[in-house]
Design a protein that fits this description.
By secondary structure, the chain is of the alpha+beta class. The chain has one domain. Helices cover 37% and strands 33% of the residues. It has three helices and five strands; from the N terminus they run E-E-H-E-E-H-E-H. A five-stranded antiparallel β-sheet has the order 1-2-5-3-4. Helix 1 packs antiparallel against helix 2. The longest helix has 10 residues.
Length: 73
Amino acid sequence: MEKIRITNGFLWKLVSYELAKEIFASGLFEVYKLHNDESESLCECYADINDAAELGLDMAIEVCHLSDLIEKN
């Protein structure tokens, strides 16, 4: 089952902490931690991912802005 989250008009694909580290290492996508107040922070190092894990925050990659999705349909 794939997990998604919508915050502040953006669609996010949730990923595990392990996958977040793999994605970060590959440089293919930017990895974000999603805060409980609907804000997000770009992970700039592995410590950011580890901190998110300790706080129980969701990890995600940005899929698209919802307005882009609506325009395509």
